[in-house]
Write a structure and sequence with these properties.
The chain is of the alpha/beta class. The protein has a single domain, classed as Aldolase class I (TIM Barrel). The chain is 43% helix and 15% strand. An 8-stranded parallel beta barrel has the order 1-2-3-4-5-6-7-8, surrounded by 5 helices. Helix 1 runs parallel beside helix 2, helix 1 runs parallel beside helix 11 and helix 7 runs parallel beside helix 8. Bound molecules: 1,3-dihydroxyacetonephosphate (13P). 1,3-dihydroxyacetonephosphate binds next to strand 8.
Length: 254
């Protein structure tokens, strides 16, 4: 079955040295291990190498994720990072399609699909984000909206090992607002996502793909989400910026 996953998206927070301190703190908090829970941290690009070194030195029980990637191998793409560059510093996951990248930087479903293919060709696990804005939720069209994103984002993907493709459902109205979706809201959409994945990849594959919830997830509410059949973990923003609160969420998932 699916191992739970708790992933921390630091977004554009923490300088290099602050990132090292946070990773060291997390290594200490989690030194007893994380059981069957897969723990991932996604620092800003310039912090990745420093966090990779902490993971190696401390034998820390968490994996390293980037927050973005470009799909080309190399070349004249100023400001971008290639998948092979992530391999070279030990990042084994990469967030793609976060609503902040879709909203502020114009990332499209087609871009997200290309990024997923490039990452998977480099054996980097995509954490592919989806989620609806408030007006879509209020119109009652959230399930259809997210299902459409999933179909476009996964088009033509070949998933051999379903543990190596992760989806994060993050309703945009719940991100950084303190307004969480209810566990039932999350289950409604995560259940629809799994059904869509089963139509595309077959039930067995769909049953192996982790679907995370994100949006004001914190130590006090994470257990309620994890109780739901199709919610396999959390993608955490604000509460991942302190070692103790993030570790508490990992422990709640164990
Ligand atoms: P918050 O947990 O700060 O709401 O952020 C969620 C998120 O966007 C994680 O990717």
């Amino acid at each position: 079955m699916r191992n739970r996953m708790i992933a921390g998206n630091w977004k554009m927070n923490k300088t290099y040295s602050e990132g090292v301190v946070l990773a060291q703190g997390l290594a200490r908090e989690l030194e007893g291990g994380t059981g069957s829970v897969d723990v991932v941290v996604a620092p800003p690009a310039v912090d990745l190498k420093g966090v990779a070194e902490v993971i190696e030195q401390e034998q820390a029980p968490f994996a390293l994720s980037a927050q973005n990637v470009y799909w080309e191998e190399s070349g004249a793409f100023t400001g971008e990072t290639a998948p092979g560059m992530l391999n070279a510093i030990g990042a084994t996951y990469c967030i793609i399609g976060h609503s902040e990248r879709r909203g502020y930087f114009g990332e499209t479903d087609e871009d997200i699909n290309r990024k997923a293919k490039a990452l998977m060709a480099h054996d980097i696990v995509p954490i592919s984000c989806c989620g609806e804005p408030l007006e879509v939720r209020e119109a009652g069209e959230h399930v259809a909206f997210v299902v459409d994103q999933i179909k476009k984002d996964t088009e033509g993907l070949e998933i051999e090992d379903p543990s190596k493709y992760v989806i994060a459902y993050e309703p945009i109205w719940a991100i950084g607002t303190g307004k969480t979706a209810t566990a039932d809201d999350a289950q409604e959409v995560c259940g629809a996502i799994r059904k869509t994945l089963a139509e595309i990849f077959g039930q067995e594959k769909a049953d192996g793909i982790r679907i995370l919830y994100g949006g004001s997830a914190k130590p006090e509410n994470v257990a309620g989400f994890l109780e739901k059949e199709d919610v396999d973990g959390a993608l955490v923003g604000g509460a991942s910026l302190k070692a103790d609160s993030f570790a508490a969420m990992v422990k709640a998932a164990m």
